[in-house]
Design a protein that fits this description.
Strand order of the largest sheet: 3-2-1-4-5
Distance between the termini: 33 Å
Structural class: alpha/beta
Low-confidence stretches: none
CATH superfamily: Ribonuclease H-like superfamily/Ribonuclease H
CATH topology: Nucleotidyltransferase, domain 5
Largest sheet: 5 strands, mixed
CATH architecture: 2-Layer Sandwich
């Protein structure tokens, strides 16, 4: 099953992330924090949530090249605020039989879901 994840940083009111399950048997997971978090922090939070909910064979799909490339070892994690999130995501990723795939933003169902939520709040 495909599981889509996405996060958005501080917009002046909230930081948020969502996880959307392709099979729609589970409702989307939506988390809003009233804290200033970066986009990358929220992308990692979304990935961690997706990993915690993943089953063997699942494909995790996101639009963050940074997160995907850091997890695959192509990029180093230099930002101190991302290191603990990276370590948690890496440990979960290595403990699960799942794959991680990058897609463009317009193909990320979780990103589309977050955009709809933002428009409803406006």
């Amino acid at each position: 099953m495909k599981t889509f994840f996405d996060g958005s940083g501080w917009n002046g009111q909230t930081s948020a992330y969502t996880v959307v399950f392709e099979d729609k048997k589970r409702p989307p997971i939506i988390v809003r924090l009233h804290e200033k978090k970066s986009n990358n922090e929220m992308e990692y939070a979304a990935l961690i949530e997706a990993l915690e909910n993943a089953n063997d064979g699942d494909e995790l799909v996101g639009d963050s090249q940074l997160v995907e490339r850091q997890l695959s070892g192509q990029y180093q994690v230099k930002a101190e605020n991302l290191k603990p999130l990276f370590e948690k995501a890496k440990a979960l990723y290595e403990s699960k039989n799942v794959s991680l795939k990058w897609v463009p933003r317009e193909q990320n169902k979780a990103g589309q879901f977050l955009e709809r939520l933002a428009r409803q709040k406006a």
